[in-house]
Amino acid sequence: MKITVCVGTGGVGKTSVAAAMALKEAQAGEKCLVLTTDPALRLRTALGLKDGLLEQRVPLSDTKGELWAALMDVNATLDDAVRFHAKTSDQEKILNHPIYRSIASSMAGMQELMSIERIDQLRRRGFDNIVIDTAPSRHALDTFDKPVLFADFSDSGKVRFVSRTYKFAEALGLTTIGRSALEVYSRAESILGAGMVRSILDFYSLFHPVAEGYSDRARNTVSMLRDPAVTEFRVVTIPGKAVRDAGFFLDALKQRRFPTGMICVNRTWLHDTPDSAPEGLPTRLLDWYRAVKNSHLLAIRELNEKFAGDVREIRVLRELDRDVEGVQSLVYLAEQLGMPIRATA
Ligand SMILES: Nc1ncnc2c1ncn2[C@@H]1O[C@H](COP(=O)(O)OP(=O)(O)O)[C@@H](O)[C@H]1O
Ligand SMILES: [Mg+2]
Q1: What CA–CA distance (Å, rounded) separates 66 from 25?
Q2: Measured from the CA of 19, which atom of ligand 1 is nearest?
Q3: What pLDDT does residue 289 have?
């Protein structure tokens, strides 16, 4: 199995390029999935993505393999973890427990924790290649830091106590029913209400098999992400930001020991230009196009000079004549991913 992780700032076409990368692998006969965070409406429609659905097969004609798409959905991921890791007899009790929904929506960093859980779930579903489109920001790599911090923290003993009812009770001093313990208990009850305290204890006793396995799964997944035989990180950018973005992301990835294989410069204006403006096209429009094309070529040259030694390849994708709006646009982008374009200025 292979994992491809696309990182990049917002609006550079990261989601579109990630989907095109998955499509290209599907065209080569693989069963691929693109896991996206924030698809633009048109792309979402093209891929048939809906909230609450774990994954969706994208209908394609003339393709040997399979393309699947999924949204990163915290609730659906957590539900799936419960179905997979909790005792069969406890699953419905957990899913219907009043505390359960509030965990997903109230815990800070749940999105990051669940992204890693999601990768683990997809790994078990038999995909040959999973392409992950990370959140659109320079902080996207937090996705991979938080689960490790969480795993370390939950192994530290400070958090383990909440994983079992009796340990939770013990931590509150309830097992040695001394005077002070009773005071703690009644204080907790007076603040939270007796029903609430019982409800929390009850919930943790059901949920602990799911939470307990989490740190191991997170650690395994992160070590898979660090393994160059499994994972390749790719920086997606546009000409105007390419040198800055590459510098930032290659550095951040290196610090985290993640293998980087590609810089993908999207939306380049490198189309052939005629010698003179065709009938009806003002000459200054052609001059403007050429000036932009020139600046893109210069950016790509600088990128090559600075970073060619740090990655397997630098790939250039052209601006399409329209928005990425359907599977056909992804086919155009995928075609360019398949062509060995090494633009030289
Ligand atoms: N090569 C391209 N040519 C034309 N438009 C593009 C190209 N790549 C992306 N776009 C457009 O750019 C916008 C942002 O794309 P998207 O993939 O959602 O970017 P991101 O995930 O980086 O925010 C969308 O409107 C999309 O249609
Ligand atoms: Mg996006």
Answers
A1: 9
A2: 17
A3: 92
Q: Is the pTM above the cut of 0.90?
A: no
Distance CA 109, CA 149 (A): 11
Distance of CA 282 to the CA centre of its chain: 44
Element spanning 133, H or E: strand 129-133
Residues 207 and 224 in one domain: no
On whether both 61 and 93 belong to a single domain, the answer is: yes
Same-domain status, 177 and 121:
no
Pick the residue whose CA is nearest to atom 23 on ligand 1. 11
Q: Using 50, 70 and 90 to split pLDDT, how confident is the model at 7?
A: very high
State the ligand closest to the CA atom of 45. 1
Tell the residue number behind the tokens 């602990």, with chain if given.
Answer: 208
Q: State whether the beta carbon of 10 lies less than 6 angstroms from ligand 1.
A: yes
Shared-domain flag, residues 27 and 41: yes
pLDDT at position 163 is 42
**Once rounded to an integer, what is the mean pLDDT over residues 96-117?**
77
Check residue 323 and give its pLDDT. 85
| Percentage with pLDDT > 90 across the chain | 42
Q: Which domain holds residue 181?
A: 155-211
Average pLDDT over residues 210-227: 87
Q: Is 323 in the pocket of ligand 1 (CB under 6 A)?
A: yes
CA of 249 to the centre of ligand 1 (A): 19
Give the separation between CA 24 and CA 27, rounded to whole angstroms: 5
Question: Does residue 28 have its Cβ closer than 6 Å to ligand 1?
Answer: no
Tell me how many degrees the CA angle 197-202-208 measures, rounded to the nearest 5. Answer: 120
Residue 251 maps to which CATH number?
3.40.50.300
The answer to whether residues 126 and 253 belong to one domain is yes
Looking at the domain assignment, is residue 344 inside a domain?
Answer: no
- Tell me: do 159 and 126 sit in the same domain: no
Regarding the beta carbon of 97 and ligand 1, being less than 6 Å apart is answered no
Mutate to test the pocket of ligand 1, among 323, 325, 330, 331 (most ligand atoms within 8 A of CB): 323
Count CA atoms within 13 Å of residue 113 on its CB side. Answer: 23
Residue 149, domain member (yes or no): no
Please work out whether the CB of residue 237 comes within 6 Å of at least one atom of ligand 1.
no
* Ligand having the closest approach to the CA of 316: 1
Task: Say if ligand 1 is within 6 A of residue 259 CB.
Answer: no
